[in-house]
Amino acid sequence: MIQLSSEREKELETLQQNLNISFQNITLLNQALTHSSSGHENNLPDNERMEFLGDAVLKLIVTEYIYNKFPQLAEGALTKIRASVISDETLGNIGKKMGLGEVILLSQNEKKSGGRKRKSNVANAFEALIGAVFLDAGLGKVRDLIIGNLNDEIELVSQAGYIGDYKSALQEYVQKKKWELPRYKVIKETGPEHRRVFWVEVKIKGKRYGIGRGANKKEAEQRAATVALKVIKAPEKHSSTSGKESDKKGVSGIREIISNVKKRMKF
Description:
mainly alpha
């Protein structure tokens, strides 16, 4: 049994109160919040295996929930909703709201490189937390945790005219504009072989319009296309403003979106 410091116990107790959960085995929670860098540095169990379990439980719970919630939708539509709801982007945002980034155990190097705010770390911690709750309390409790935190996102996706295939949407858009087709290129790969992360850029007429990150090239391309659509359509929001002022706002909007994307991707 791993002995936790009194300071760590208080930190985990506060987190449980904030999340309205209660662990019988507090070491499971501590492991869920132990990044691999800290595990290797201190010779402690990290959260990678627990994340693997949590990912499977998350997919099961969300699949069952949307299956019953949307009886009129076909398999393809349900798959697209699920993919959006359990994406790294969504899970990272939820984990951030939970405050998981502030309690993840990281190596000194990982801390210095901004690991507490890195969405992939926070998303992985959330999935590991799901695995920990499942091991500690079973399927009923973990279902409450998942649906309680993802229900708003599910509602949003189902009501917002969800676009499932952003690559196709981007291609249709540029074809209407009679532009050349988007070109996708892998510009960076990170992580170990069993957990590779791909970074893809999309260019139109030689200009970069988006960068996406994913666990495979297809996922990264979809996210790059999502960003590109936002960038391209940004000036249209200012169409009611005329002349140079409109141009300035459009350019400013594009720059702001690209800047935000780069910050999120830590690229």
